[in-house]
Design a protein that fits this description.
Elements: E1 10-11, H1 29-43, H2 49-55, H3 65-78, H4 83-96, H5 105-115, E2 118-119, H6 121-132, H7 137-144, H8 150-169
Antiparallel strand pairs: 1-2
Helix pairs in contact: 1-3, 1-4, 1-8, 3-4, 3-5, 3-8, 6-7
């Protein structure tokens, strides 16, 4: 048997985030909620250890669902040009790296690649589009078709991270403001 690379990885480029959920995406479900909580903790400067431990290696297959969600989260945070997103990305990656032996070797390699901003071209285009708030439905379909559930799980991580980022950017009411 000969192994061959079918696609070359490309890299996400940090860009400004246009907040708001893009149309045409379904709710990310429990996995997306876990990714959102992990990203929210990282963005708020809280410990991410329990979130990473809860996802890393969780699920079946060569790339467990939790790992795919972490890949999506890392790609999304790495694609946003904002200090908070960069800090959150570094925090999650620092917690993931020493735990790579807790998952499959293929998944560990994909986590390292996602941490550096690399993924297959369709995933990079989708993440870039989601950050900009514009997504082509056919691109979503191509990413969802990756693996048995990897595309769906990766998208859950991306959308969870972007929802946490959007929530962290929402203006908070000013203390002492006039309540006329």
């Amino acid at each position: 048997m000969v192994a061959a690379r079918l696609q070359h990885a490309t890299r996400v480029r940090p860009a400004q985030r246009r907040p708001g959920p893009p149309t045409g995406l379904r709710e990310p479900g429990l996995l997306g909620d876990l990714a959102r909580e992990l990203a929210a903790d990282a963005l708020a400067g809280r410990s991410v250890q329990s979130g990473v431990l809860g996802l890393l290696g969780a699920g079946r297959g060569l790339t467990p669902s939790g790992d795919d969600a972490i890949c999506g989260l890392l790609l999304a945070l790495g694609a946003v040009d904002a200090p908070g997103a960069r800090r959150a990305h570094a925090t999650v990656l620092a917690e993931v790296r020493p735990r790579l032996s807790g998952t499959t070797s293929l998944s560990a390699a994909l986590l390292v690649a996602a941490g550096a901003g690399y993924a297959v071209p369709d995933v990079v285009r989708l993440v870039t589009g989601l950050v900009a708030g514009v997504v082509a439905p056919e691109l979503v379909d191509r990413v969802l078709a990756i693996g048995h559930s990897s595309g769906r799980d990766l998208l859950s991580g991306v959308t969870g991270a972007l929802r946490a980022l959007d929530a962290s950017l929402e203006p908070t009411p000013q203390e002492g403001a006039c309540r006329g």
